[in-house]
Amino acid sequence: MMSEKAGYSLMIHGGAGALDNIRDSDTAVRYLESLRGILEHGRDILGLGGSALEAVEACASLLEDDPVFNAGCGSVLNEDGKVEMDAAIMDGRDLSAGAVAAVDNIANPIQLARLVMTMSEHVLLIAEGAERFAEHCGMERAPENYFYTPDRIEQLKLARLKHKVMLDHDSTEEDSEDQKYGTIGAVAYDMQGNLAAATSTGGIVNKRMGRVGDSPIIGAGVYADNETCAVSATGYGEDFMRTVIAKTISDFVYLKDMDAEEATRAGIEYLRRRVKGRGGVIVIDRNGNCSSGFTTKKMIHGWIEKGGEAVVRF
Ligand code: ASP
Predict the structure, then answer these.
(1) What is the rounded average pLDDT of the residues 59-84?
(2) Domain definitions of the chain by residue range
(3) Catalytic annotation, residues
(4) Taking CB atoms and a 6 Å cutoff, what residues make up the pocket around ligand 1?
(5) Looking at residues 261-290, what average pLDDT do you find?
(6) 5 CB contacts (<8 Å, ≥6 apart)?
(7) pLDDT for res 190
(8) Nearest Cα residue to 281 out of 225, 220, 227
(9) What is the C-alpha separation between 36 and 301, in angstroms, rounded?
């Protein structure tokens, strides 16, 4: 994924796994068109000199607004049939970061995470505390019915029947190990050479109430440092927390002078070898090079590298 043009770079993802819910071409087109539109929106921001931070927040918000992705209005349901969302954003300029966990009734958790970063002295707020902070910032609450799509209710019923915790768009094959993790994320490199990252999720289907995944944990599901790279992860959060995967990839750049592709490969190898981790990452390094890697069969993602064409894949 290398291009000669200098400028801005942007990557987004919409989950990793078997993706066997995307069997027909109409569904595939639906996903890919959504990614392409969001990438072009990000290009409008970065191409006009907007910041990486602005771009990742805008792209993550649009992904949260699309119900096909497991974040914002498309969030999966927990064991009580409720939505509990996690999100985080990080600015590579000064390592400032904001995150929220186990929130509901917030249409765009990524925007609340940004407010935590800019308007509070904290990095991570959870549940009621985060919601009180949202109110304090004048953020509107989304009505309950904004979140409960028929698909998500059906999916929870299936998980309960199987008596298990399932991941978004679980494989229909009973004993398949490869499932879809539908978290969304964005990483960007702007024309000033700054990096930023954002990740947002509804978590996993039928999860225990109060379960928090990797997405709002700085260094696990998200990381950005101008001196190294920006990373957003999607997959089985417990694996990513145990390997601190986003910071591990950043450390490969910092300590071993790797570029995005080498650091991604090293990070994915570590994830697989140490914990048989399931999922993937998108990475942009300090020179604007884009890379992605995953241990699942597929990952829905797309990128614009150094101002080039938008590419979308799964
Ligand atoms: N990483 C998310 C979590 O474990 C799930 C996902 O990527 O879909 O909460």
Answers:
(1) 93
(2) 9-96+148-313
(3) 183
(4) 15, 70, 168, 181-183, 201, 203-204, 213-215, 221, 234-237
(5) 98
(6) 306, 307, 308
(7) 98
(8) 220
(9) 10
Could you tell me the distance, in angstroms and rounded to a whole number, from the CA of residue 179 to the centre of ligand 1? Answer: 11
Q: What pLDDT sits at residue 24? A: 73
Q: Helices 245-256 & 260-275, crossing angle to 10 degrees?
A: 130
Q: Provide the residue type at 31 as one letter.
A: Y
Q: CA dist 153 to 45, 77, 109, 158, Å?
A: 36, 7, 21, 9
pLDDT bin (cut points 50, 70, 90) of residue 259 is very high
Q: What would the two tokens of residue 295 be?
A: 């241990």
Q: How high does pLDDT run on average in the chain?
A: 91
Tell me the CA distances in angstroms from 20 to 16, 30, 57, 299, one per residue in order. 11, 15, 29, 12
Beta-bridge partners for 196 = 91, 188
Q: Cα(121)–Cα(113) distance, rounded to whole angstroms? A: 12
Q: Which residue has the tokens 């992860």?
A: 233
Residues 114, 123: Cα–Cα separation, whole Å: 10
Q: Assess contact for 17 and 171: CB atoms under 8 A.
A: yes
Q: Which atom of ligand 1 is nearest to the CA of 202?
A: 9
Q: Quote the ligand 1 centre to 212 CA distance (angstroms).
A: 9
Report, at the CATH architecture level, how domain 9-96+148-313 is classified. 4-Layer Sandwich (3.60)
Q: 163 vs 267, which has greater pLDDT?
A: 267
Residue 46 and residue 97 in contact, taking contact as beta carbons nearer than 8 Å: no
Atom of ligand 1 nearest to the CA of 235: 7
| Torsion angle of the four alpha carbons 236, 23, 206, 220, in this order, in degrees rounded to the nearest 10 | 20
Q: How many angstroms does the Cα of residue 4 sit away from the middle of ligand 1? A: 34
pLDDT digits (tens, 9 = 90+) for 154-176: 878 877 777 666 656 455 454 44
Alpha-carbon separation of residue 39 from 168, 200, 223, 261, 314 (angstroms): 23, 17, 20, 21, 15
Edge-to-edge, what's the strand order for the sheet holding 279-285? 222-224, 229-235, 279-285, 290-294
Predicted local distance difference test score (pLDDT) of residue 94: 98
